[in-house]
Amino acid sequence: MSAEAHTARRRRSDGERSRQAILREAARLATVDGIDGLSLGRLADAVGMSKSGLFAHFKSKEELQLATIAAADDIFEEVVVVPAMRADPGVPRLEAFADRFIAHLRDEVFPGGCFFASAAVELGPRQGPVRDSALAVLVRWSGLLHAEVAQAQADGEIDASLDAGQVAFELNAFLLLANAQFIAGGGAELPLERAQTAFATRLSAARP
Q1: What pLDDT score does 123 carry?
Q2: Residue 42: C-alpha distances to residues 33, 34, 35, 54, 147 (Å)
Q3: In which element (H, E) is residue 143 found?
Q4: Which domains are assigned to the chain?
Q5: Helices within 59-128 (DSSP H only)
């Protein structure tokens, strides 16, 4: 590789790392200020860059919003979904999903709570690619819970006569309510503990 090619490749690598750092900060800000509250000026102040420097990465507010949602999705996968998927399918994986979701709230991965719960409230009534991108992650998350309930039924861990979609909905509702109360309560631990208890109780009640 020539010196010029090596330098160009390093610049691209440095630029990508810079972009990812910017987007992680944008994802954090969005849970506090809202996705609509994201602006190049606000983000530039947060990351210590010039507005013109950020403009080199994102040409429009919508591009920034879409990239931020993608970054938040990557973070959620990294800290919640991937670790939980290491658990055995069925009930153990459902329990791992709950544990990792609660942990990401407790650890303040996003200072405003679950990124996608916040985005659903903010963007739900709207139309367009930003809304669709954010809600697609919530649909996928619900699908993961549904799939593990169905797997648990196939394995005889959950009553096969139950509606898997309904059970998954209820389990997810516990987690989302914990998120809302945790944020509203300024980081109080009790909602998280109650959600974990409710989650375990519902799974126990669903056994054959």
Answers
A1: 87
A2: 10, 12, 12, 11, 40
A3: helix 129-154
A4: 61-205 (1.10.357.10)
A5: 61-76, 82-85, 91-106, 115-123
